[in-house]
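Job type: complex structure
Entries:
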Amino acid sequence: MMEVSIGGIIGLYGGMLFGVLGWWFGRKKAKENRGLDELYYHIWQKARSYAWYVTLGAIYVFFSLIMFGVELSTAMVLGILLLAHVGSWGMIGIIMSVNMTSTAPLQPSRVKIGISVIVFTIVSILTNNWLFLLVSIPPNLIGLITALIPNRKYSEE
Amino acid sequence: MKNRIRELRKLKKITQEELSKQVGVSRQSIIAIESGKFNPSLELAYNISKAFHCTIEEVFLFEEGRM
């Protein structure tokens, strides 16, 4: 029988708990400003739809790696798939929300973010070290925030 | 789809916030609809038009060949 990973259990269920709490609190705040309207559902349904394309791509990448003889652990594959799906869902949702209300559409450098994610993913697989993938989160987040700030100006005429 | 929301809002001296409260959506939705980035549902289009005492065709300008 496999070993029980206490850290993994705390991370998995703790992450889910914080995720659900964040989701609930976000909806509560949005409801106060009539934010749970048809635009909200349109954006987040679209984002989920695009996130499935990203997940599909990630599944193909993992299958290719297995074909080329790279050994992958179940936890690593499931973890990256979860990150790719939930992460892209959130990021696409935020970008779409900003684009809907800003005068100049947000055009973050998809290439830079994409390359950064791919490079860190390959490094983490080759070195078999998860930390490289986690390290990729801050630069991608900073890149996204930097791209968001200049375009958030919208003045009501 | 083009619309005359901004023009009608100025005419009636209604802010985006006030219009959003009247029709029960967020101000962000009004911004998105006004700028033509989001096409509202028939129900919301009807409510927006009603807020200006207009018909849907008077507020939303359907462009043929753009569907």
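Summary: Chain B has one domain: 2-61. The beta strands of chain B are 2-3, 60-61.
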